[in-house]
TrEMBL record, chains A, B:
Modification 4-aspartylphosphate, positions: D58
Domain Response regulatory intervals: 7-127
Source domain of life: Bacteria
The keyword Coiled coil is annotated on this UniProt entry: no
Record flagged with keyword Phosphoprotein: yes
Protein name stated in the entry: Response regulator transcription factor
Organism for this UniProt entry: Streptomyces sedi
Record GO terms (molecular function): DNA binding
Keywords associated with the record: DNA-binding, Phosphoprotein, Transcription, Transcription regulation
Pfam families: GerE, Response_reg
The HTH luxR-type domain, residue ranges: 151-216
First and last residue of the signal peptide: none
Amino acid sequence: MADVTTRIVIADDQAAIRHGFRLVLDAQPDLCVVGEAADGAGALATARLLRPDILLVDVRMPGPDGLEVVRQLAGDGPGAVPETRVIVVTTFDLDEYVYPALRDGAAGYLLKRSGPTLLVEAIRAAMSGEALVSPSITVRLLRGLTASPAPATARAALTEREAEVAGLVAQGCTNAEIAAELLISPGTVKTHVASAQRKVGARNRVGVAAWAWRTGLAR
Amino acid sequence: MADVTTRIVIADDQAAIRHGFRLVLDAQPDLCVVGEAADGAGALATARLLRPDILLVDVRMPGPDGLEVVRQLAGDGPGAVPETRVIVVTTFDLDEYVYPALRDGAAGYLLKRSGPTLLVEAIRAAMSGEALVSPSITVRLLRGLTASPAPATARAALTEREAEVAGLVAQGCTNAEIAAELLISPGTVKTHVASAQRKVGARNRVGVAAWAWRTGLAR
DNA sequence: GGGAGCCTCCCCCTTTCGGCAGAGGCGGGG
DNA sequence: CCCCGCCTCTGCCGAAAGGGGGAGGCTCCC
C-alpha cells in the first residue's frame, strides 16, 4: 500500500463541526484536510477541483444535500469523481437518509456522536475499499437480516396465526397459496388476512405486507 | 446508565490471541477481562457461570464452534444468557460465517486484523445495544443491500414512471389511487404495474411492493 | 426517414380480493 | 359454569387486480 498522506475535504454547514473534524484529522500523521465547504454546491465544486481521497459530507446542507452529493460524485455520470470516496457524517440516523446514501455508493455512514475514533477508522476503512457504518445504524441494517427478534409490542397485536398469514402475504402469496401452505381453507385465510388488515390499520393486503416488512416480520 | 466496569470473557483456542486481547482490553479503564475459554464448551460454561457483559468468541474452535455459541447464548432457549452480548472475532471473513452469526444475534463481527481500536469500539457499541461490523464485511453486506437479493438487478431495470408507480404500490395504493396521484388513467397505471411486475420477476403487485421495500425504493 | 423506448390510453376476459354476516369447536379465566 | 378470544369454516356480492391484445404520440438516435 502506498503510504502517502490521505487528502480529505470536509463539507458541513457548521463551521464548528468543520473545525473540530480538522483538529482531529490533522492530528493524525497520515491524514490531511486539504479543503472545506459549507454547502452542497461548494462540496461538489471542491471535490471536483481537489479530487481528494476522502470527502466527509453532512446530509443536511444548503443547496444540494449530502445525498445528492453522494449520487453525483459516486455515480458514473459526467460529474463523478471516482477516486474520491464519500463518507456521510450526520447528526441523526434516519432511515430515509441511510438507505439511499449507502445504495448510491457512500463509502461509510457515521453519526457525529460516534466520536473521533470511528471517524478516523472510517477513513482508513474507506481507503481500503471498505465501508464503516455507525454501529447504531448497523443494528438496523442487520434487523433486515435477522430472524425477527421481535418488536413484540407491535406484533402482539396479531395472533400467531394472523402473523403467519401476514408473513406469507408479504411474500406475495395469494390466499389460495397460503391455504395450501398452512393446510387450511382459503376462506379461513381470508378471515386471517382481514383481521390482520384491520389490526394493523391497512386498507388492503399490500398494507399488511408493508407492515410485515417494517416490523421485521417479513424479509 | 450505570457506569461500572464492563466485564468481558474471551473465548479463543489460541492462547496468544487471548493474551493479546487481554492486554488491550485491560488497558482500558472501564473494561475488565474476567474469564477465558479455549473451546466452545468452555465458552458456553464460562458465559453461563460468569454472565459477562461481553463474550468475544472465535468462530473456529474445538467442540461447539463460535456460531453454535452465538445460537445458544443469544437465542431464547433454556441455555441462553440474555445479558451477555456475543461479539464474533475471527481471522477470515467468510460469508458462511458472517451471515449466520449476525442473523442469530451476534452483537458484532470483527476480523482479528482489524486492530485493537475497532475491538474496543465494538465492545462499546455492543454495550449500547448497537453492533459494529468489520468494514471489510460491511461492504459485502451493503452489496447485498443493493443488488443480491433481487435476481434481476438494480432499479435501472425500471423506467422512472414504473419506479414511481412501484413506490406507490408499496404504500398500499390501489391502481385508482395511483392514477389520481399521478394524474393519469387507471389503465395506464395497470400497464406500469404489469411491466414493473414482469421486470422484477414478481407474480403480483405484492411482489412488486416486496421488491420496492427490499431495494429501498420504498420505506 | 426509420427504429427503439417510453408514456399514454383503450378493449376484452378471468381470477383474486375485500367486505359482510354467520357459525361451530376449543381453550383459559373470572 | 359461562364468557371471551382464537381458529376454523361457510356463503354471497361487488370491486380490484391480472393477463392478453392493440394503438397513438413523443423523444432520441442511427
